[in-house]
Design a protein that fits this description.
Blueprint: E1 4-6, H1 8-11, E2 19-25, H2 34-53, H3 60-71, H4 82-91, H5 101-113, E3 117-121, E4 129-133, E5 139-141, E6 147-149, E7 154-158, E8 161-164, E9 182-187, H6 194-212, E10 215-222
Parallel strand pairs: 1-4
Antiparallel strand pairs: 2-9, 2-10, 3-9, 4-7, 5-6, 7-8
Length: about 220
Amino acid sequence: MSAIQIDKSISSLIPQFKLGFISYHSIVISDSPQMLKGRLQFFQETLQMDLEEKPLTAFSGVSEWRDVFKICKIDPSKYRPSHEALMRRIKKGNFLPTVQSAVDLNTFFSLQYVIPFGIYDASALKGDLSVRLGEPGEGYDGVNGRFNDMSGKIITADEHGPFGSPIVDSRRTSVSTSTTDAIQLIYLKPSMEVEEAEKLVSAAASMFTQIHGGEILQASVINL
């Protein structure tokens, strides 16, 4: 099982930076159950109404992650944190289509907790993982259908190079209905206390296995 660490390129800038790390084994990904589809639809409708009355930056998960990007010299207006991009779509009335159970649940988590979530096929990963700033020339083909230059961005990398980010994830490690082992990363708010973060990670892992079965090999908060 892969280990994960936060590189000094990030921790030196944001000492409170922390991640939720969950590893799943023997899961079954399929079309989303009606319960999840209904919950995701209702949540988007409720969120759209909330966004009519207050700006995105009124949500601490949006404002704090924009601050993280600024500290790392990433322009949050040009490269949006993934959860903010989702919320902007919903604000415009462009509700998110269902994809499959793992992606849809990750979307629900991102909106519910107002932070970026990533879900990755563990069989596509090699070696230990590191969350760091991308080096010049690093990038990948993303799930957004284009090549993404990740130099200077917050990335998660394995021995093959970068595969994930709180901006957009790669196609190389995307989950599908053939995925049986997966890793979930939760890009927590730096201000969140460890005890609160541990409760969030535990709740997310529990709901994920309620829908996908399998077992939780690890569910922890990674910080300094």
